[in-house]
Every structure is written in C-alpha cells, then in structure tokens.
Amino acid sequence: MIDDWRNGGFGLYIHWPFCEAKCPYCDFNSHVSRKIDQHAWRDAYLKELERGAEETQGRVLNAVFFGGGTPSLMDPEIVADVISAIRKLWPAANDLEITLEANPSSVEAGRFNGFNQAGINRISMGIQALNDADLKRLGRIHNTSEALTAFEIARTAFERVSFDLIYGRQNQSLPEWKLELKQALSLAIDHISLYQLTIEQGTAFGDRYNIGKLRGLPDDDLSADMYAATQELCDELGMSSYEVSNHARDGAQSRHNLIYWRYGDYLGIGPGAHGRLTLNGQRHATECFSNPQRWLDASHSGLTEKPRETLSLDDQASEFLMMGLRLKEGVNLQRYEALAGHRLSAKKITQMEDIGMIYCNDAHLQVTAKGFMVLNAILAELLSD
After folding, report:
1. From CA 56, how far away is CA 48, in angstroms rounded?
2. Element holding 153 (H helix, E strand)
3. b/e string for 45-77 if b means 16 or more Cβ within 10 A?
4. Residue 215 and residue 169: Cα distance in Å, rounded?
5. Which among 156, 149, 231 has a CA at the least distance from the CA of 192?
6. By CB atoms within 10 Å of each CB, which of 19, 232, 234, 247 scores lowest?
7. Using CA atoms, how far apart are residues 147 and 103, in angstroms rounded to an integer?
8. How far apart are CA 289 and CA 292, in angstroms?
9. This prediction's pTM
C-alpha cells in the first residue's frame, strides 16, 4: 500500500515572522522588529531546507508557499537564494507553484520584478477591505487607493495574483458587502480568499470583545446571509468556491491550499510553522518553535522543532475528514476507511443526506451548499461515536 500522503501531494511552507505592524484581528505568528538581519535568516532557511530534504529525499515538490508575517518584506535576493536551494534539493513538478504573500504597503514595481526573477510565480495579497474606514479599523497601514495600485503592480509582474478580503466587519451591512464584493470580482483576478471576521482570543480584537468594546459585529442571521450572498455572487461571476473560503476560476485553484485540504504532506520551516510528514510509513505532526530569535539560534544545531507528535490512524482519519470536507470536491470514502479501519456510519450519512446536508455515492462524500452553512455540526456528527 502506498503512503496515504501521496493522494494529496507534497508541499513546502516557509514562514517569515515579521510584519510592519500587528493587526488587531491577527492570531498568526507575526512580530514587529525594527532590525532584521536578512542574511542570517537566509542562512537559517538554507540549513533547515537541507535538513528537511534529507528526510524527504526523492519526493516531487508540488508547491512552495512563503507565508507570514509579511514575506514581501524579504529582500528579493534572499528569496532567490532560498528558491535556488529548493530547486536543487527536490525534484519539482513541471507546474511547480511558488506563492509569496504580500501586503500592499510593501509593494513597488522594482521589488515585485525582483521576486518574479527570483522564481515566485504567484502572489497572494492581503488587501482585506476596499474602503478606508474599515481598513483603519482593521489596523491596516494601507488605504484603498494604495491597495488597488499595489494590485495593478502585482498583475503587471505576475500572471497569477490572489487577494484576501474580510467580511462580517463591524457595522457592515449586507448591501455594503455585496457592493464591495462586486468591485473586488470586477478586477482581473483568478483567485480570491473571502474570510468572515473571527474574533480570536489573545488578539487585540479578542481583548476588546471580552470587555464589551468591540461593537457592531453581525449576528448569526446576518453572518449566514453574508455567506450565502458571497457564494451566489461568486458563482454568478465565474469564481465558484473550491473550499469554504477560497474561490477560483477553473484551473486557478491554489495548489498549496489543495495539498493542505487534500491531506498531503507538507514540510513547515520557520518560526511557528506547522507540518505533516510521513516517514517510514508513520505520519507526524510537526511544529517549529514560535519565538523568532529562538528558532534562528536553534537553526545552527537543527533543533528548531518541538517534539514531533506521532498521529494514530484514528487521528489521521479524523484530520482527513475535517480537511477534505471543506473542499467542494469532498472526500474519497475508501481513503477514509483505509485510515480509520472502519466505515462512517451509514445511518448518519443517510440521515444527513435526507435533509440535504451531504451527497454520497458509493465511494465519495460531499457537503452540499446548504451543508457548508453548518459544516462544523456535520463533522461533529460524522465523527461522534
């Protein structure tokens, strides 16, 4: 039997932990630092890439993703050195996707041309809103005009450009969101990520929410209406969802995203980076130390990770289902059964199929448009004893 990860592919995630400012909603591992020794970070990445390559020799690499933080703050020559090393260490798929996340405030033509020459072939831009008042409220340091200018610069330098928007913002109405989404979809994009604002503990928004000072958030009914309107508008304009929050034209889906949601293996490098690695037939969950200086110092000895967690087959089956049912394509039930050692409850499947939440044939399970509205409840029911 082949290793299960091959059904999803193999990717590489590289985390750059630095930002120009910390957004109040962000719970990612990002830090503001006035002084960054980029060459020291390059050397650390190169050492960790070599270590990772030793464990994954011969694997064909399908996607590379520079995430953060704000990786567009990296010097293009540093990115070039990292990509050059990657191509020497792994055989690459013919259509290798190499994505770099960017914020509009760090975009200028010469820099983006440099990233292009370095080997980046896809940009994911954190625009988040298309009006100045909400951008300020979200803690973004760019305005709408700067965002649109940055997008045009990116489109000039790269064939594939995606951007993120957050909706369900404070005091945002449904008509306002529809208008903003139509504006976003009118731009020359082939991929867009649309996230409802979530309030995470440990963030500035979380702190404000806990003391009752984050007002104007949508109630459950408005949130549901916004989600439904998002799907309808995107479908009308040829940008249907392929995953709960990600929309793309045919053939423009993010390969990095697909590796993750199809439960492939991915090597995580950089402070706080997570990964899934199958070694000698056993899948492991990996996590790097999150403190940037600790990770950087540890790169000299190769001890940048916390102790790895060995995942049981039950754990893997649960993760596979939780990941895969976020995709419109759904999951292969035979793959689930091979991991879990048993089938999902036919009774539960029938019950949810009868009320229009899922669709199932002999070997495949998909969530319906109606079901995506209550996906967490569907997963809880399917995975319960």
Report:
1. 12
2. helix 144-157
3. bbbbbeebbeebeebebbbbbbbbbbbbbbbbe
4. 10
5. 231
6. 232
7. 8
8. 8
9. 0.96
Domains of the chain listed by start with CATH number:
4-260 (3.20.20.70), 330-385 (no CATH)
Residue 288 DSSP class: B
Report the distance separating Cα 242 and Cα 297, nearest Å.
Answer: 40
Phi, psi of 245 (to 5 degrees): -115, 0
Q: In the β-sheet with 122-128, what is the strand arrangement from edge to edge?
A: 241-243, 246-248, 191-196, 160-167, 122-128, 92-102, 61-68, 10-16, 265-269, 274-279, 282-287, 309-310
The answer to whether 99 touches 256, Cβ cutoff 8 Å, is yes
Helices 375-383, 313-324: crossing angle, 10 deg rounding: 150
175 closest CA partner among 216, 138, 222:
222
Whole-number Å distance between alpha carbons of 162 and 253: 10
Report the DSSP pairing between strands 31-32 and 10-16. Answer: unpaired
CA distances from 216 to 171, 207, 226, 249 (A): 5, 15, 15, 33
Residues 228 and 118: their CA atoms lie apart, in Å, by 40
Residue by residue, pLDDT tens for the chain (385 residues) are 579 999 999 999 999 999 988 888 888 888 998 899 999 999 999 999 999 999 999 999 999 999 999 999 999 999 999 999 999 999 999 999 999 999 998 888 899 999 999 999 999 999 999 999 999 999 999 999 999 999 999 999 999 999 999 999 999 999 999 999 999 999 978 999 999 999 899 998 989 989 988 899 999 999 999 999 999 999 999 999 999 999 999 999 999 999 999 999 999 999 999 999 999 999 999 999 999 999 999 999 999 999 999 999 999 999 999 999 999 999 999 999 999 999 999 999 999 999 999 999 878 999 999 999 999 999 999 999 7
CA gap 342, 336 in Å, rounded: 8
Altogether, the residues listed in the chain come to a count of 385
Q: How far, in Å, CA of 330 to CA of 358, rounded? A: 10
